[in-house]
Write a structure and sequence with these properties.
This protein has helices at 17-26, 44-50, 65-84, 140-153, 158-161, and strands spanning 5-10, 31-35, 88-92, 95-97, 111-113, 120-123, 127-130, 135-138, 169-171, 177-179. By secondary structure, the protein is an alpha/beta fold.
Amino acid sequence: MTQPMVYVIAHSSSTVVRDCIHSLDTHGWKFELFPAIDGRRLGSVDWERIGVKMSIIAGKLPKRAGAQGCWFSHWSLWEQAVKQQQPMVILEHDAVVTAPWPDDIDIDSCIVRLYTTSSCKTKPGLGTWSKGAHAYTVTPQQAQQLIDRGRTFGASPVDKHIISEHIPWRFLGYDLVTLNSKYSVSSTSRTI
């Protein structure tokens, strides 16, 4: 398959994104920067506007402005995928591409996390989710499922929002994209 457009979520002040851009350029990926939404500027009116509340599994999302901004950034790209009716790759600013886009990735049957297996957890009745959402594919249909899930079940951290009971996903099985080892910290403290 031809490489879908890549959107890199980054604040204008991000220095980490330079390594991401360099890796994308080095391996010939087409991409655009997507301005990250600042969670400190979000309020209840923003949540009401999109028709989403916090999920019962939201964890620390309600208390972390950075996580809320991250969620809104991903949400905005899901809306864009639906509106444009185009698949896309979503990268966070600390992602690093390791190779050219492979022609044999099937992204139509499920969301593909563009890395090897990472820690997974299962919630009864909700399915399996994996830590991290720094690099994944999404089609317009999958994006609509993520939007519908948000409106039905509420917002939870992006990695928990992509949960198997509501949307099929899989790991690529090798590291086409990694986290930048120079800057990355645990997924519980990093923000976009």
